[in-house]
Backbone:
């Protein structure tokens, strides 16, 4: 046998003997979350998303921004643009100034609770209204929101919206 092959075999033996046996390395059972708890998460997230769209319809910028988990790791993707917290605030301010009125229809909304404190919501919405200049506004987007529960409230941690 070549020296290299012997060294490789010795390394394999060392790795295999150093690895814990299946008897000593028992995997921890996953924490189970009751269906009722996940159902509550889905209900709460749907209510929060309804409020999200209502704050835009009512032009309540501060309430709208309060629905987000403010911080450096917030990411918002609007089509091909990506925003951190500071840039997103500027984007939202501009949107609220440019749109005089808008109403939304949630065409589809699926909430996937991952735990009592984390959920992912996906769906499609349509918005219609008029701009500050009186022009028609039509928005038809698919979305993905990642939400976290902080201080007893659901907040948006990540958004990805794409025009349809």
Residues:
């Amino acid at each position: 046998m070549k020296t290299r092959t012997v060294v490789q075999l010795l390394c394999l033996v060392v790795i295999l003997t150093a690895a814990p046996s299946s008897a000593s390395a028992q995997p921890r059972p996953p924490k189970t979350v009751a269906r009722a708890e996940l159902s509550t998460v889905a209900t709460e997230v749907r209510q929060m998303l309804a409020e999200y769209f209502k704050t835009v319809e009512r032009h309540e910028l501060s309430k709208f921004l309060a629905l987000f988990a403010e911080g450096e790791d917030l990411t918002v993707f609007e089509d091909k643009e990506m925003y951190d917290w500071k840039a997103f605030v500027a984007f939202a301010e501009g949107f609220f100034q440019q749109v005089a009125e808008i109403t939304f229809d949630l065409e589809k909304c699926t909430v996937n609770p991952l735990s009592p404190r984390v959920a992912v919501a996906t769906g499609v919405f349509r918005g219609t209204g008029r701009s500050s200049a009186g022009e028609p506004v039509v928005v038809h987007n698919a979305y993905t929101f990642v939400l976290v529960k902080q201080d007893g409230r659901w907040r948006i941690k990540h958004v990805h919206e794409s025009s349809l």
Observations:
- The chain has four helices and six strands.
- The longest strand covers residues 99-115.
